[in-house]
Amino acid sequence: MKSSRFFLGLILTFLFFPFILFSTQDEELSALIEKGNLLITQKAYPAGIAVLDTVLTKNPKNPKALSLLLRACDEYSQKLIEQNRFPQAQAYLQKMEQVLARMDSIPTREFSSQDLKAKSRIKREVVSAKGFLLSPSATVGTDIVLLNQGRELYNQAVSHFEKRQYDLAESLLKESIALDQSNPYAFELLGEIANLNQKLTEAEAYYKKAFALNPDPRLREKYEKLLREKNIEKSQQHYSDEHFIIRYKRNESIEGSKIRELLREAYRSISQDFGHYPRYQIPVVLYDRKEYEELMGSVPHWSGALYDGKIRLPVYEGVITDLDLRKLIYHELTHAFILDLAKLKCPVWLNEGLAQYEENKIKPIDLRSLANAAQSGRLIALQDLMHQDPAKITSQDDAVLFYLEAFSFVSYVIGKSRFYNMKQCLLELGNAKPFEEAFEKSFGRSFKDFSSEWRKDLEGRYR
User: Fold this and answer.
1) 76 in Cβ contact with 36 (< 8 Å)
2) Cβ–Cβ < 8 Å for 128, 150
3) Which residue, 9, 77, 350, 447, shows the most beta carbons closer than 10 Å to its own?
4) Which domains does the chain have, with CATH numbers?
5) What would the pLDDT profile of 264-279 be if each residue is shown by its tens digit?
6) Is beta strand 306-307 parallel, antiparallel or unpaired with respect to 244-249?
């Protein structure tokens, strides 16, 4: 009896196995199509096209994938023509003709009426565009398959870069540009990696190539800042360890070994709070005030230091005490930890509040301005605080209040919960969760409730 049941089960398994196999494949293809659609909606056309091409290698007559691919090629070719990038546009027009031919071989009932209307419109537009771009003897210099492979590698590199996996990102970017030399963002990202590794000459070369392909004012500003940094670096020397790349001025009283010990102390303390250890070397550059202003341009006069992927410390002007230097290091190093956890998704006020929370360990923050604001009813509502950029605040009093409220709220929240919850909130933000959703998921209470309770506590305490 047991034997017959076994054979019956075996037979049923073989009968249903193809169904299970095809169901799994259909689910995989549906997920890929959804991913392609999302990328196209986000105007990441090359990446979306690459995903849909993958679907069509497995199911060449998938009507949904073909319709989406036609739409993507149409929108992207128009964008390329507007940018005067005619060879690339020509390649995508030829791809559109191939897609249209495939769609013509499939019964119309397989497509929605909307897809058929789009197909008819695009077919007319391709003929018109060919008259503008193509001649009978025209050849396409860009291999569309290689182009899409290059863009897909670029997207993978971005993902690794965001995780601070610079070696992997650099390797993928070099593979990407070997296939596609027309992507300025790949060259720019290679420049970013070289810059963060303090390889400024390499960074300069990559930025130049990126700018030649995409003369964006933002990129020009980045390139010019790099040149200023290279000029300052001539008078600096290098000191390095497992966590930091340190550059400081020659013949100064603050030696590299001393800076390293202060950085290590801060690293140990902050990593214990966050329960996190960045897996890359953090660049730290020390300047006198003149050098700092030469590099950064005009900065608010209350700005003590800066973290922009590198910790930049203006520490040589006048007499700086060890206490002041430690305070600056704790503050700016905290930003590096936050970036590693939350990517670029952490709100500015929360970022600054956490940095001050760590800074406060070294030198207690003066809360008199906060007390005065609470007594006089001048506190900034936290909902307004969320949308303010301290770099654009022109009043020193307003800037001070921005920082103090951020510090006060962060301290209150951590005091009522655990630092672990704050770390979870940063991780949720890094996974692209909206702030209030990330906050509630991590702390088990809404941000609105917590902020209302904080404000009531603050006003009650200072009144």
Assistant:
1) no
2) no
3) 77
4) 27-133 (1.25.40), 150-233 (1.25.40.10), 236-339 (1.10.390.10), 343-463 (no CATH)
5) 999 999 999 999 998 8
6) unpaired
